Amino acid sequence: MPGSDPENPRGPLGDARPDATNPHVQDESGQKPEKLEDRPMVGSVKPEDYPEDERAKGA
Prior knowledge:
Layout: no helix or strand
């Protein structure tokens, strides 16, 4: 039954056609990514983030 699904056109053997339009194309309405310089540092930890009494005691 090739051609029975207009959203997913198939070839004569039931395979996907490479010239079919992509139904998952995103439009340009999403937010643009932030510049790298403007992004917050989420993985960096400073000693000031932990009080002295909560730090592990080194050997």
